[in-house]
Amino acid sequence: MEWTGVRYAEGPTVEVRGRIAASPERVWELVSDIGLMPALSAELRSVAWLDGASGPVRGARFTGRSSHPSLGEWETTSYVVECAAPRVFAWAVSDPEQPSATWRFTLTAGEGGGTELTQWMRLGPGRSGLSYAIERMPEKEQKIVFVRLREFERSMTATVDAIKGLAEGTATLPIRRGEGA
After folding, report:
1. Considering the domain boundaries, does residue 158 fall inside one?
2. Domain span at 21
3. pLDDT score at 174
């Protein structure tokens, strides 16, 4: 992907795809299980449903705790903004109207079987930890955004690969907990 010259206010996106030799229903079980995600992430440390929710439904909220060597530790509340099993699971971080980021898994049944899994994310338009870094070094905004998007791309690729391994039965947990993004 090409992000040279991209600014935060432009709402840059990252997307990765993978083919999985498993049904969309099996892949859905994994991508919609927020409790699994910390085991697949170098940044996400823990998640928990809020308001008595026990699974993904539109409007449900969950909290996530994350850490990054350059950004420190933080906690966010996310809002499920799309949920249609076994096709799409998406959430907005911090504010569903002005999210700091929006994340989405899309599942498409493959011709001849299997599933095409896409993980997508968009920065902004709301403020995030990245906004504060940019305010401290505005002359480096494009580099800051570029580096973060590359981190997301690597992380998302590893997540899709891990889900593939779990869905196809070729991997077990923990997959990559603690690796750098």
Report:
1. yes
2. 8-37+84-168
3. 65
pLDDT tens track for 124-149: 999 998 898 899 999 999 999 999 99
Residue 45 lies in a domain: no
Residue 30 lies in a domain: yes
For the CA atoms of 50, 55, 57, 58, the dihedral, rounded to the nearest 10 degrees, stands at: 40
The count of domains in the chain is 1
> Cα–Cα distance between 81 and 69 in angstroms, integer?
29
Neighbour count for residue 25 (Cβ, 10 Å): 12
Indicate which CATH number applies to the domain containing 135. 3.30.530.20
- Predicted confidence (pLDDT) per residue in 54-113, tens digit: 889 999 999 999 999 888 899 999 999 999 999 999 999 999 999 999 999 999 998 889
Q: DSSP readout, 4-72?
A: TT--GGG--EEEEEEEESS-HHHHHHHHT-GGGHHHH-SSEEEEEE-TT--S--TT-EEEEEEEETTTE
23 conformational bin, left if phi > 0, alpha if psi -120 to 50, beta if neither = beta
Q: How far apart are CA 20 and CA 58, in angstroms?
A: 26
